Amino acid sequence: MTALRRAEADDLDAIMAIERATFPEDAWSTSSMRAELAGPHGHYLVAVDDEGAIVGYAGLLAPSGSRQGDIQTITVAEAARGRGIGRALMEALLAEADHRGVDEVFLEVRAGNAIAQHLYASLGFERIAVRPHYYQPDNEDAWVMRRTA
Asked: What residues contact residue 96 under an 8 Å CB cut-off, 6+ apart?
């Protein structure tokens, strides 16, 4: 069983290990992730397995008073995929967005990531735009997706 909890500063090393393993060419920097975890407008979660290891993380940016939010990142360690962890993280972030009064939630997803696109569509997201060559250095397009309340 995997539990979700708020991410803490002490989780940074484990988060970055998953980040670098998943995105070797375009991982977030440690300083960027540290700032996201500490930011006043974010809501970051980690998924923790039965042994206490962090196996996934996700973050929402939704400033107070804003009617819009962004899924900043969501990643599940390769060995933990296919167990519903990504869905659980997304559902928790969307519940937080609803709690904050957010009417629209946006995200970007790689054009070639059909598994993530299917997950997002099943949660009510629809593709609204394409950002050509968004992901670098591999020059992959991003789908911009939106979920409305």
From this structure: 43, 60, 62
At residue 64, the pLDDT reads 86
**What is the number of other CB atoms lying within 10 angstroms of the CB of residue 99?**
10
pLDDT confidence of residue 149: 84
Question: Do 63 and 96 form a contact (C-beta atoms < 8 A)?
Answer: no
Confidence class of residue 28 from pLDDT cuts 50, 70 and 90?
Answer: very high
* Residues noted as catalytic: 108, 120
Say if pTM beats, i.e. exceeds, 0.90. Answer: yes
Domains of the chain are 3-148 (3.40.630.30)
